[in-house]
Write a structure and sequence with these properties.
The chain is of the alpha/beta class. It has one domain: von Willebrand factor, type A domain (Rossmann fold, 3-Layer(aba) Sandwich). It is built from 4 helices and 6 strands, in the order αβββαββααβ. The strands form 2 sheets. It has a 4-stranded mixed β-sheet, sandwiched between helices. Helix 2 packs antiparallel against helix 3.
Length: about 140
């Protein structure tokens, strides 16, 4: 119910909303040194990768376009946002051989690559490990 519109028109007004689909979602996955730490038997990188793959699956089922950019000191993998029934499978294939490396992460390189390759309005989800306030 839209109570403000109802008060103005003196009759009941309701609004019907629909979910937006066909949006772009880009998952950025840090594969640097801090992602090699282990918690609960899995590396932080593996936990982030699992979360990214699950979110990609949910977004693709909802009709959105999903993509992946994995990086450490340089861009390791880039998959532009694509839609369709096989979009989540493409993300899985792009992330198949990824592993964290013992190098410092360069966020500057990653975001420059992203802005150069993705021009459309896109939701960016960054998976990384932040240890202290300086890193944040």
């Amino acid at each position: 119910m839209d109570w403000k519109a109802t008060a103005r028109r003196q009759k009941l007004i309701s609004r019907e909303y629909q979910l937006e689909s066909n949006q772009s979602v880009m998952f950025m996955l840090d594969a640097g040194r801090l992602m090699t730490a282990e918690t609960a038997g899995l590396s932080v990188f593996d936990q982030a990768l699992n979360a990214a793959l699950m979110l990609a699956h949910v977004a693709a089922r909802g009709g959105d376009q999903v993509g992946l950019l994995a990086f450490a000191d340089a861009v390791r993998t880039f998959l532009p946002p694509t839609g369709g029934p096989r979009a989540a499978r493409r993300v899985v294939q792009a992330a198949y051989d990824l592993a964290p490396e013992l190098v410092e992460t360069s966020y500057d390189v990653a975001f420059r690559a992203l802005s150069a390759r993705v021009r459309k309005r896109t939701l960016v989800v960054l998976f990384t490990q932040v240890v202290d306030e300086v890193s944040a």
